[in-house]
UniProtKB/TrEMBL annotation:
SUPFAM superfamilies to which the protein is assigned, alphabetical: Periplasmic binding protein-like II (SSF53850)
Main location: periplasm
Organism of derivation: Ectopseudomonas oleovorans
Pfam families: NMT1
Organism ancestry: Bacteria, Pseudomonadati, Pseudomonadota, Gammaproteobacteria, Pseudomonadales
Keywords: Signal
Coiled coil residues, start to end: none
Cleavable signal peptide: 1-23
Domain of life: Bacteria
Entry's localization field: Periplasm
Name listed for the protein in its UniProt record: Nitrate/sulfonate/bicarbonate ABC transporter periplasmic components-like protein
NCBIfam families in UniProt: ABC_peri_uca (TIGR03427)
Length: 353
């Protein structure tokens, strides 16, 4: 055998036997906060459902609970997370208003009593709100609910005094005697009802479909990495399906979510009853295609403009636009900053994820 042939054999053996360095999977981050409609994210991460779907697409997804709701959205807006759970109004008034192009990837549910206005004492009516002080997270969906309640009562915002309190402190503040009324969401609502005497005088079940609970993703990240959107959508609807099952497996899943929310399974089931949850991608898709989203977001944008949340000019939708799948956009079509994209829910509904 020639020296050249021997060297060739040795070189091939070295190459075949050399260890290969595999690139680490791309990592993405999602944040969520405690709320009945978003508990599935914590459960899906804990039970390995998120990892299963991330592995399918060769990526890594880190799921983190952020205790303060508004802070979670602000951290997403600042680029610390690639996706975040939030309402439709907050998606418009925080990231979109700050110039972060965001996509509503998943519509998980709409509030159907999960957000409510409570007045101290029994036997109160919504008209008793006049002259009262109201605890709420200012400029959040709770503030929006207040304006809708005032419309029903034929009152103006000037007829009440708003006290801004974060969602992490609002229950303790109200239970300690601060304020005459409080507007918040579950599980905080449930805690207050159990600990003091109140009258529920208005809730989101009177404005069905107006408060949407979403999973929102950076549009740039989604465009560059559609596998991230696929994995999130797959993990979400696998968990939602389990959540809605009247079986031992479904009950166990709900019990685990209840424990994470620091409540009982019975109370958690009651909280879920105040949501119109979309347990399958088809039902979420059907809701998204009703054609009501543009009118809904027009109303929300009107509230946001009236409170200077889209810029002090009061002409927010001249400065930014909202896009809908299959619908005419709202506002500035040349500067879309919030997008309702049904493509991934469609893939899930068609079994093509």
């Amino acid at each position: 055998m020639s020296i050249r042939s021997l060297l060739t054999i040795v070189l091939c053996a070295c190459l075949l036997g050399a260890p290969t360095t595999q690139a680490a999977p791309k990592t993405f981050k999602l944040c969520w906060s405690i709320f009945a409609g978003w508990m599935p994210w914590g459960y899906a991460a804990e039970q390995g459902i998120v990892k299963k779907w991330a592995d399918k697409y060769g990526i890594d997804i880190q799921v983190q609970e952020v205790p303060d709701y508004v802070a979670s959205i602000e951290r997403y807006t600042a680029g610390q997370f690639d996706a975040c759970s939030m309402t439709n109004m907050d998606a418009l008034t925080i990231p979109a208003a700050a110039g972060k192009d965001s996509t509503a990837l998943i519509i998980g549910d709409f509030s159907n009593g999960a957000d409510a206005l409570l007045l101290r004492g029994s036997g109160k009516r919504i008209q008793d709100l006049k002259g009262k002080s109201v605890l709420l997270v200012e400029n959040s969906v709770s503030h929006y609910l207040l304006t809708r309640a005032l419309e029903w009562a034929l009152l103006d915002e000037s007829d009440v005094t708003i006290i801004n309190v974060s969602d992490t402190e609002i229950a303790d503040a109200f239970l300690a005697g601060k304020g005459d009324a409080v507007i918040t969401w579950n599980p905080i609502l449930s805690e207050i009802r159990h600990k003091t005497e109140v009258s529920q005088v208005f809730s989101s079940n009177l404005i069905p479909g107006e408060i949407l609970d979403l999973t929102v993703v950076s549009t740039q990240t989604l465009a560059q990495h559609p596998e991230f959107g696929r994995a999130l959508t797959g993990a979400w609807f696998e968990t939602q399906r389990l959540l809605g099952l009247p079986t031992p497996a479904g009950r166990e899943a709900r019990a685990r979510m209840a424990a994470a929310a620091e409540t009982t399974p019975e109370d958690f089931d009651a909280q879920l009853g105040t949501l119109r949850s979309f347990y399958s991608p088809r039902t979420a898709l059907n809701f998204a295609r009703t054609g009501k989203l543009p009118d809904l977001m027009q109303r929300v944008a009107g509230f946001a403009d009236a409170h200077g949340l889209l810029g002090k000019s009061g002409m927010g939708l001249i400065n930014l636009g909202i896009e809908f799948s299959g619908e005419k956009p709202l506002g500035n079509a040349q500067h879309i900053l919030l997008r309702f994209n049904h493509d991934y829910m469609q893939l899930a509904a068609d079994g093509k994820l």
